[in-house]
Amino acid sequence: MSPPADPYAQPHGTATARRIAGLALPALVVLAAEPLYVLVDTAVVGHLGPVELAAIAIGGSVMSMAVWIGTLMAYGTTGRAARRFGAGDRPAAVAEGVQASWLALGAGVLLALLALVGAEPLTRVLAGNPDTAEAAAGWLRIAAFGAPGLLLAAAGNGWMRGVQDTRRPLYIVLGANVLSAALCPVLVYPLGLGLTGSAIANVIAQSVGGGLFLLALIRETRHLRPEPSIIVRQVVLGRDLLIRGAAFQACFLSATAVASRFGVAAVGAHQITLQLWFFAALALDAVAIAAQSLVGAALGAGDADEARDVARRVTVAGGVAATVFALLALAGASVVPGWFTSDPAVHDQAAIIWPWFVGLLPFAGIVYALDGVLIGAGDVAFLRTITVISALFGFLPAIWLAYAFDLGLGGVWAGLGLFTFVRFATLLWRWRSPRWLILGATR
């Protein structure tokens, strides 16, 4: 059995700022690696022509479903592994990783088969013309072979975060993405494979990354048999996270649909600001990951006071980090939209929603941190329920009323504000209650 690879990886102890940062900063790099690679891949393919660029946008959108499922798998595994690690049972924490890896392998193979069979009809529905659909289907049929590796990497990230080992995931994910970024232009241009080269580079990188996480798991334990009872519990946890994630997707897709009905400039401004919101969320998710690991470990160790202290510290950290983002956004209000477009009509629309963007960020930082706290505590059913309620009775009615009464982008972002504040209030209430403080190695 290997010792923890991270110097901050004590099963239990005070959650100092240094310890939170020691978990959050490597997690931030891991979170950012995939989107940054997608930008590189897009830039390489973009020089092939508009059809190829549109094709990778369509195919990448389909593959993003696998990324989304992988994220949910990683989050669910982190909390369960962290509880066992906090209880002083590292082998049991690693065992969660074993079962998550079996689940990842099965789900990855299933997704790959579905993509192979459904590539053509899917891309025909999503693409605007036959040439784009054909190119996207060809890319997707190859890229789909990377799904098992992608999900194995997600499971590996999950259990390693649970045992507070944040360095090996950093090296593995960075290495795989650097490999892919180096291979992509070589395969696309000198070797003349074009769009196919991009897909092959993706598959190689994802398979190498998944293989390295699998190798790390094998080095930790020889108990590699599937345990159906544990896998079923992980599926239940993943189901709740999936429903929660689906509520988010419905909200943001609906917001874009409503924004598009206010004109080209409005949807352009909305897209710019929403992507900046997602970028901030990505960074703040690193704090949530630290919360998952530290809260799970404290509850696994049977220390409710430590769990509360961790929750308080990471919530403050999330709020402070989000406030810094908000101040930067405020300072750049007249400059940042110009990075994306020179259209003055889009700038005017962005000015309408920028105060919403800046004002909501600090509250969102606290919400994301408390999400991490409750995921680490295994209180995912509550998160599922409150997110669905906030979407169905807050966000969605608000934005469609904005459309009905022609309230423009201000009405759309008021809906996002309502969604954020409902979650903010209910998560604070849950945090102050003892209901999430279930002690022990299992929940």
Automatic annotation (TrEMBL):
The chain crosses the membrane at residues 20-40, 52-75, 100-119, 139-159, 171-193, 199-218, 241-264, 276-302, 314-340, 352-370, 382-405, 411-429. It is found in: Cell membrane. It is a multi-pass membrane protein. Its main location: membrane. The keyword Mitochondrion does not apply. InterPro entries: DinF-like (IPR044644), MATE_fam (IPR002528), MdtK-like (IPR048279). Pfam families: MatE. It comes from the Bacteria. GO terms for molecular function: antiporter activity; xenobiotic transmembrane transporter activity. GO terms for cellular component: plasma membrane. Keywords: Cell membrane, Membrane, Transmembrane, Transmembrane helix, Transport. Belongs to the multi antimicrobial extrusion (MATE) (TC 2.A.66.1) family. This is MATE family efflux transporter. It comes from Actinoplanes aureus. The lineage of its organism: Bacteria, Bacillati, Actinomycetota, Actinomycetes, Micromonosporales.
